[in-house]
Amino acid sequence: MIFLASMSIFNFCHRFVPCLADPARRSSLGLKAALVVLHIVYAGILFLFDSDLIEKTKQEPWSYTALYLLLLVATLIQYFVTSCSSPGNVLDAMRDVNEKNSLFSKASMLSKQTASSKNGSLIITVEGNQSERNIPGSNVTSWTKLVLDMHPPGTSIRTVTCSYCNVEQPPRAKHCHDCDRCVLQFDHHCVWLGVCIGWGNHCRFWWYIFEETALCIWTGILYITYLKANISRAWLKDVIMILLLVTLSIALIFLLLLLIFHSYLILTNQTTYELIRRRRIPYLRAIPERVYPFSKGVCRNLYNFCCARSSIYSLERLPTAMELEDKSRPYTCLEFLTCRCC
């Protein structure tokens, strides 16, 4: 009877919440709920035990404590925004490019027909600018041509066709087996967020790590302040606070390392996948370890990462041999003064 009752409740939940039927989405929702509960527990116990902090909050509600709660809410919002954002899918990019090319082709045909009717047998062809010429057609051959254009001229080109999505992958793209899709500028699949990190959401991911790190530091300071003032009053509360502080310190170390690592990747325009699997990626094997092929300088990399991502479907071409030779050349003192690295 208990088994039948539990099964009926389970089916009832699946009927009204269809996403619970998928084990992967159920696991992702469980992780999101666990992370929210962890934040509430760490902040709630602090306000539950620290009477001085509560009094200070009552006297000055919009001061120090309000900023802490604002950071807590902002971190949770940033977490959900990042987890719901798209990393930039190759199939979506191909559809977007095909739609643009279809509109361009229709406009071109209309202009040809208008010119033909006005000038008899004279046909006027509208070429468009460079970005319009690089847009492929609405078939696989045109998409393949676009991917081939990402490689430098005169090089031996080996296109990679995804066996799962059945589409040619542009440089820096990779198929994610967890999400079952090809991702532009693939970095990694984040288990905590339940989404891939790629071109479209890497900036949001960095800001989430930054906010989470700042929140951990602030929470740790509040915990230490409480223990300094109340270390000998109630030993049970002290034990709970010390255990939470230890786990918080471990999480803080991990977050700081992750923040520094991704900051390094941003400054050099790399991804986690490219750094770890460099020798397994065909277009990176012959490049020396200390050469960053996609880097455009620290300032330009930062600008492109933070400010210039208006479209997640912008494709980045591979550098030419001359560009790689220039990047591999060591800096001189004069070049450092003239900010060649930037």
Automatic annotation (TrEMBL):
Localisation: Endomembrane system
Catalytic activity field: L-cysteinyl-[protein] + hexadecanoyl-CoA = S-hexadecanoyl-L-cysteinyl-[protein] + CoA
UniProt keyword Lipoprotein, yes or no: yes
Recorded GO CC terms: endoplasmic reticulum; Golgi apparatus
Ranges annotated as spanning the membrane: 31-49, 61-81, 205-227, 239-267
GO biological process: protein targeting to membrane
Class of this enzyme: transferase
Entry's EC annotation: 2.3.1.225
InterPro entries: Palmitoyltrfase_DHHC, PFA4/ZDH16/20/ERF2-like
MF-aspect GO terms: protein-cysteine S-palmitoyltransferase activity
Protein name, UniProt field: S-acyltransferase
Organism, scientific name: Salix udensis
